[in-house]
């Protein structure tokens, strides 16, 4: 099992949430104080440096026009950390390929960071959450297609070393593609993909040996998706590394009381407010989902889990908190319920959770929880017939 | 609607290249091509039945709307205009009165700029299609970034009239609603609800043209409509009181009265 520290780099110092309608897309930037922002950026980067010291890996992401995530360019953070850390693997999960103007810029940036870090980079590619389509102005009906065309172009650019090639796809036309630098790792950094419900896409991820990651979902849903991945994985002969990753919110403390307090603070992330028109742009999900939305039984991809209490979230494996032994036990339970996984991505900071308490939780996890879990066996491919 | 049953109506698919276009034909008389708006609300509206007493009303569903398929190469109103011109040819319709509402009005103008030889006249209700102002001007309110409650007030003089009881509709109907919405985003996301070239082609429209505009349309304001109408030579421009983006739906009687004499 590999352990990754993560924070979305939130800017929580907002007006009373009852007085604003949205934390995303249209929240005026007058609510952002650059002095507080400067402190927060440096603090979150410091916590990543601590992760490196503690033997944890680092996960980064980016979002746009939102107080929930100040990291607007994960490659920038990765570049800083590539230089300032020495051991940790750095995973960008992910590069919003469907929302970026040019996939080749992503290919170059990743190759450069991979070289600076001497091969410690993992590269995730994501389609982007629904509200991102507005900030990027990318057509919400075509983000999946754009994502995969972009990935194909990036991988080809990373792995072509005999001079230029041309590309005339549906979304991008490129001439004389000839990447300098090439990635430090050969053939290229491990690729990660996120997903929540599209089984066709998961099969493709498995076929290609990319790592498949899910965030903050109940264990039965995670197992269903992970089984689909494992089934596809074996049928295509294990190309590359592959593997499965899951992200819960994690808070580790010396006492149950402290743990619950920390856990509550982490749920700030789940209560992020967004106006309804930004939650499900037309065509982002298939027609069948939107029929359910019109019937009032579907309100976006993740809303169902977000409105629940602490106990429910812990039972489902979305929120893991407690004393070190309890945290280890909860993760083992989740591991067993979903048929195993390889990468534990931990959102160990969210909302107002202070630097001191974040550091305390991270340190306890690294010293007392990680040793109990690190030898859990890796994902085993399964036969299709055995998949749920 | 009690009047619906009295008027003869048939639906069938017309194949044009790789497009299978669902076409409804209603009533008897000279041909009137009704190009409905992005929500396809007109297909079931009372004013259409009034038209069908005098005309044969021909109602096609654009690719991706209704039950028409959406071939992947189709990306904008330009493409749909060519398909609809093919439709007029295939059905051999001549001297056609074209009534286009909202998105349908945009398609009607795209058609007329390419070939108006089968078109007798154009009647347009609050069409999208051009950009009048500069880069920082929001000519057409952003229907995808506006809170649904506010959007209803922009679209309707009386938002109550715009309410639709989705949970009581069949899954089949709802999938058409969802599909229409998805297709509108596919075609109109960027450039938003307009074709930058259309403005420069409108001089090619030679047939009598009339713009009808809801006085309280908050999505595309009457000032936009007035400026739009001036781009078409000799076009008439009238407004309808107590009506928003859909004057033909909100004030059907006033609408029919205003266009009497033109169609």
Description:
The complex is a heterodimer of chains A (about 400) and B (about 260). Chain A is α/β, with parallel strands linked by helices and about 400 residues long. Chain A is about 40% helix and about 15% strand. Chain A contains 13 helices and twelve strands. In chain A, helix 1 packs parallel to helix 13, helix 2 packs parallel to helix 3 and helix 3 (about 105-115) packs across helix 5 (about 145-160). The longest helix of chain A is centred in the first third of the chain and has 21 residues, at about 35-55. Chain A starts with a strand and ends in a 15-residue tail after the last helix. Residues about 385-388 of chain A have low confidence and may be disordered. Chain B is an alpha/beta fold. Chain B has a single domain (about 5-260), classed as Rossmann fold (3-Layer(aba) Sandwich), CATH 3.40.50. In chain B, about 30% of the residues lie in helices and about 20% in strands. Chain B has helices at about 45-50, 75-90, 105-115, 150-155, 170-190, 220-230, 245-250, 250-260, and strands at about 10-15, 20-25, 30-35, 55-60, 95-100, 120-125, 210-215, 235-240. Chain B has an eight-stranded mixed β-sheet, with helices on both faces.
Quick overview of this protein structure:
By secondary structure, chain A is of the alpha/beta class. Chain A contains 13 helices and 12 strands.
Average the pLDDT over all residues of chain A and give the rounded result: 93
How many individual domains of chain B?
1
Mean pLDDT of chain B, as a whole number?
96
From the alpha carbons, calculate the radius of gyration of chain B and give it in angstroms: 17 Å
The CATH architecture of chain B is 3-Layer(aba) Sandwich
Total of DSSP H or I helical runs spanning 4+ residues of chain A: 13
Query: Helicity of chain B, in percent?
Result: 25-40%
What percent of residues of chain A are in strands? 15-25%
């Amino acid at each position: 099992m590999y352990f990754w520290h993560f924070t979305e780099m939130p800017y929580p110092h907002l007006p009373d949430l009852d007085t604003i309608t949205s934390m995303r897309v249209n929240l005026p930037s007058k609510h952002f104080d650059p002095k507080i922002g400067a402190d927060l950026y440096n603090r979150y980067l410091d916590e990543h440096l601590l992760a490196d010291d503690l033997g944890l890996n680092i996960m980064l992401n980016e979002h746009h026009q939102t107080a929930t995530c100040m990291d607007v360019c994960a490659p920038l953070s990765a570049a800083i950390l590539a230089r300032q850390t020495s051991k940790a693997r750095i995973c960008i999960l992910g590069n919003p390929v469907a929302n970026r103007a040019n996939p080749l810029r992503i290919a170059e940036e990743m190759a450069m960071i991979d070289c600076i870090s001497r091969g410690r980079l993992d590269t995730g590619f994501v389609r982007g959450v629904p509200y991102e389509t507005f900030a990027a102005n990318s057509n919400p009906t075509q983000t999946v297609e754009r994502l995969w065309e972009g990935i194909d172009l990036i991988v080809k650019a990373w792995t072509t070393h005999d001079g230029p090639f041309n590309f005339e796809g549906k979304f991008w036309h490129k001439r004389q593609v000839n990447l300098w630098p090439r990635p430090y790792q050969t053939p290229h950094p491990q690729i990660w993909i996120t997903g929540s419900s599209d089984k066709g896409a998961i099969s493709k991820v498995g076929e290609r040996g990319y790592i498949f990651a899910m965030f903050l979902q109940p264990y039965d849903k995670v197992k269903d998706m992970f089984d689909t991945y494992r089934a596809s994985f074996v049928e295509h002969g294990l190309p590359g590394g592959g593997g499965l990753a899951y992200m819960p919110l994690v808070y580790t403390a010396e006492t149950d009381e402290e743990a619950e307090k920390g856990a509550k603070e982490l749920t700030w992330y789940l209560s992020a407010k967004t106006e309804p028109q930004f939650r499900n742009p037309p065509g982002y999900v298939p027609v069948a989902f939107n029929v359910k939305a019109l019937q009032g039984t579907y309100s976006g991809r993740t809303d169902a889990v977000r409105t629940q209490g602490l106990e429910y979230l812990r039972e489902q494996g979305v929120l893991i908190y407690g004393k070190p032994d309890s945290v280890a036990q909860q993760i083992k339970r989740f591991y067993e319920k979903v048929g195993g996984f390889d990468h534990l991505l931990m959102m160990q900071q969210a909302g107002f959770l202070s630097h001191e308490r974040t550091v305390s939780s991270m340190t306890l996890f690294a010293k007392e929880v990680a040793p109990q879990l690190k030898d859990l066996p890796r994902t085993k491919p399964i036969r299709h017939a055995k998949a749920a | 609607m009690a009047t619906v049953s009295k008027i003869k109506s048939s639906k069938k698919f017309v194949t044009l290249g790789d497009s299978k276009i669902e076409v409804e034909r209603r009533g008897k008389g000279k041909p009137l091509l009704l190009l409905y708006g992005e929500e396809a609300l007109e297909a079931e509206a009372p004013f259409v039945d009034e038209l069908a007493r005098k005309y044969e009303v021909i109602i096609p569903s654009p690719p991706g709307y209704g039950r028409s398929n959406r071939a992947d190469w189709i990306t904008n109103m330009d493409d749909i205009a060519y398909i609809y011109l093919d439709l007029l040819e295939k059905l051999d319709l001549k001297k056609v009165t074209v009534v286009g509402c909202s998105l349908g009005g945009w398609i009607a103008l795209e058609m007329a700029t390419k070939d108006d030889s089968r078109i007798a006249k154009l009647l347009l209700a609050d069409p999208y299609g051009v950009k009048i102002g500069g880069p920082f001007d929001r000519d057409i309110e952003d229907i995808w970034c506006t809170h649904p409650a506010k959007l209803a007030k922009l679209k309707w003089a009386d938002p109550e009239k715009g309410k639709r009881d989705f949970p009581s509709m069949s899954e089949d109907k709802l999938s058409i609603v969802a599909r229409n919405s998805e297709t509108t985003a596919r075609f109109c996301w960027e450039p938003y609800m307009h074709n930058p070239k259309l403005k420069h082609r409108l001089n090619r429209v030679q047939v009598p043209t009339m713009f009808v505009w809801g006085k309280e349309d908050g999505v595309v304001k009457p000032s936009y409509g007035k400026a739009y109408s001036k781009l078409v030579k000799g076009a008439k421009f009238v407004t309808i009181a107590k009506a928003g983006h859909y004057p033909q739906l909100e004030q059907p009687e006033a609408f029919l009265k205003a266009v009497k004499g033109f169609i």
